[in-house]
Amino acid sequence: KVADARIGFWTISLTAVCALLGSLLAAAYPTWRATRIRPLDAMAPLSMTERRQIPRAAVLTALPLLLVNPLVVFLPGLPEIIRIRLYAFLGCPAMALAFVLLAPAVYSGCRQLLQGFLARCLGLEPNFLRSQLDANLWRASGTVIALSIGLGLYMTVLIWSASMLIPFIPGAWMPDMFVSIMPGGISAESLPDVCRIDGIKSSACLPVAVEQVRLAADLTGSAHRQSVTRQDNVVILGIDTEAGLAGATPLLPFAFQPRSDRERALAELSRQRNACLIPAHFAVAANLKTGDSFAVIPPDSPERPVTLLVAGIIDLKGWHWFSKISGIRRNTSRTAAMIFADYDTIRSNFALDRIHYLWFNLEPRADRTAIVASLQDIVNRHVGERYHIPGRSDAIIRQQHLQTTVTAELHQSIHNRTDTIVAGMLKMPFLILLVTSLAVANTAVASLRARRREIGLMRAVGLSGAGLFRLILGEAIIIAIAAAAVSLAFALFAGVCSAQMSTHLSFFGGMGWNFAVPWLELVRGLVITLLVCLVAAAPVAAIAAWRPPLALIE
Predict the structure, then answer these.
(1) Is 201 helix (H, G, I), strand (E, B) or coil?
(2) E strand or H helix at 551
(3) pLDDT at 486 over 90
């Protein structure tokens, strides 16, 4: 699916507001400085030393502000709602202000580090480029800040989206294909026929007993505020312990938490003592550990809760999206977790007498269409049979439907959906970047005006028009590099803080700490910024190079 690349009214309006606010903020400090200058002082030219000065107070103020957001997100023990408010109204504004204050220092640092190398690359006299950069330090710093608004937001969206994508991608624990057979399922006698279908690995094909049950106690705090993982129910999946979870090549090769013993957990499941495996995010949300117990309410007999023993804690990335589209949320649309137990235990506890779900791996180059057709032929044999609906009554199968979830297709659908969302989110920062690129041209014009006679004299003594063109482009390159450095630092800093913040939010409680940096996409943004700055400065540089030396000296 191709992302919609149109720019709507609200995108343009919000961009205009951001550009206006950015312009006002950029003008605030120069305006204040202008009001502090005495008339006689204004008549004297500024020394080059004064032009190079970066206020130490800005850097000293920025450093403490940088510590505010990490303290908010990493400090343990804060209530969730207080942490959210501190993060939104204190941490994020302090972080943004800190990078604004640091931008002039970053520009000055990039100028000192790169001006010699850049002069050699452009074939310029280093003193010429140095004087060009020194002539308009504060205006260039303001341009860096303006560019960093769009580019910083652009990079932050890329890092945030890459980090948030990680927990939704199914891990290696998920087999190739999951099938839901609704409404009546099949009988156990038909399972060998399923295993003999061409393309299905017969040694890796198991029935799954699935039920969605309410928690007897509100372990997750759903009564106070429901979210993704704060629900009052869980989905329990029963699978054969020996073939599905144990052995050298189990169908579900779970990764156990460091404090959870794999062999002991599987032994507990084999004893059929209502033992289960719970995912790590549910263990945190429900405050459960290995050896604890909790009760669930069967739909058929709500007056007799079933007590489950936590035998082990596993990692389960990708569970949420899988459970959403696979059809295992049988009773409500949202659930707190997927829990695994022994197949026979789940069947007996929740009165599941038929096979409604299958999980299996595929042979290489298997024909999925043919597999589904063969499965449909098998399930159609059971039309007219009676099946039990837990919590309700018995019914007759009138028509059977298959719902297949292929892990490879699930990966692709998640990536496609992410690309569509991110493409929409990137419209505004990209448009802001294009709008603020005009500040690069404005800076080039201001630099040219500030050194008009000096540049005219350099032209008169031998500086060519092409050399002047390269001189102005050199300043644009330094501005682009400084803006890229500020934006990348801001995006990485904000990404780390948001990744940690997501572990505290119940909405992302099942996701854990995830931080990823899509370097290729970030480099693409840096290249775009460099090209935008060069394109913005090129017309000014061309006009200046075209003018004769005497016109500049006048």
Answers:
(1) strand
(2) helix 549-553
(3) yes
Contact 166, 321 (CB under 8 A): no
Residue of 553, 546, 554, 544 whose CA lies nearest to 448: 544
Give the pair of three-digit tokens for residue 432.
């802001």
Task: For residues 435-458, give the mean pLDDT.
Answer: 71
**b/e per residue, 74-112, with b = 16+ CB within 10 A?**
eeeeeeeeebeebbeeebbebbbebbbbbbbbbbbebbe
Classify burial at 35, counting beta carbons within 10 Å of its beta carbon; exposed 0-12, middle 13-18, buried 19 or more: exposed
Residues 378/194, Cβ–Cβ less than 8 Å: yes
Task: Determine the number of helices (DSSP H) and then strands (DSSP E) in the chain.
Answer: 21, 11
Whether residue 480 has pLDDT greater than 70: yes
What CA–CA distance (Å, rounded) separates 94 from 144?
Answer: 19
46-50, 129-133, 301-305: least confident range = 46-50
Amino acid sitting at position 127: N
CA–CA separation, 188 and 211 (whole Å): 18
Cβ neighbours around 253 below 10 Å, total = 15
Both structure tokens of 358: 């299958």
Token pair listed for 518? 């899509």
Beta bridge partners of 520: none
Is the pLDDT higher at 105 or at 536?
A: 105
- Burial of 270 per CB tally in 10 Å (0-12, 13-18, 19+): middle
Q: At what angle do helices 137-165 and 427-436 cross, to 10 degrees?
A: 170
Query: Rounded to an integer, what distance in angstroms lies between the CA atom of residue 452 and that of residue 554?
Result: 9
Determine how β-strand 338-342 pairs with β-strand 233-239. parallel
Distance CA 490, CA 349 (A): 53
**Tokens representing residue 392 in the block:** 């309700």
d(CA 554, CA 223): 78
- Counting every residue written for the chain, the total comes to 554
Most confident of 257-266, 300-309, 541-550: 300-309
Quickly list H helices, 304-398. 319-325, 343-350, 368-380
The predicted model gives 167-193 an average pLDDT of 90
How does residue 309 score in pLDDT terms, banded at 50, 70 and 90?
A: very high
Q: At what angle do helices 92-122 and 126-134 cross, to 10 degrees?
A: 150
What mean pLDDT comes out for the span 3-27? 66
DSSP secondary structure code for residue 229 in this structure: S
End-to-end Cα separation, the chain, in angstroms? 60
